[in-house]
Write a structure and sequence with these properties.
Blueprint (H helix, E strand, L loop, with lengths): L2 H21 L8 H46 L15 H21 L4 H6 L9 H47 L8 H39 L4
Amino acid sequence: MNRIILIRFLAVAVLLLVFWIGTRRMTVIPNRMQSLVEMGLDFARVNIAEDLLGKKDGKRFLPLITTIFFMVLFMNLTGIIPGLNIAGTSVIGVPLLLAVIAYGAFIYAGVKKHPGKFFRNSLFPPGVPPALYIIVTPIEFVSTFIIRPITLTLRLLMNMVVGHLLLVLFFAATQFFFFTADGAFKFFGVGTLVFGFAFTLFEVLIALLQAYIFALLTAVYIQLALAEEH
């Protein structure tokens, strides 16, 4: 148990609290909290799940995609909250776990839809001359079954790490210029403070964007597994 684990627990607790408050007394005419929760759920359903997978398959995988989207979003946002100051996704454990779950959903969807043919068609794409399989099959194996979960993990992880380091750099420089530097150098602290707040707002956008991208790529991989060519 360490600080990053506590932050992750806190993010999950806040997420559960938000959804509990927003759904405990649902009415036909929603209040503000219910409207906010419904907007978030509709965004994940319409713009990610159903847009890529259609209504039938989108409904099947909606709980997974929605959970990934909101979990990543809330853990990303802890990086800009004073006192926490680090995203729950900026250490590899959570990004790797979610990538493994997304990868498992991809394999499950493919095997369920195309039993006996999913792995064969993934490694030996139809229409390729047999002589080329000696080149194509290793490439397909690496790109489909190794590169995908790795890139899914690193994309989220590195974006949050870089954002954290930039904020640390700007606000550490602000503290140095205001409290340590001499004379006119103190005025540089104003510039670093402005840039720090600007990048904080930018990190809000990045937090939302990375949550969307992770959930979107999960849906894309599931869509590829369900495609008829498998």
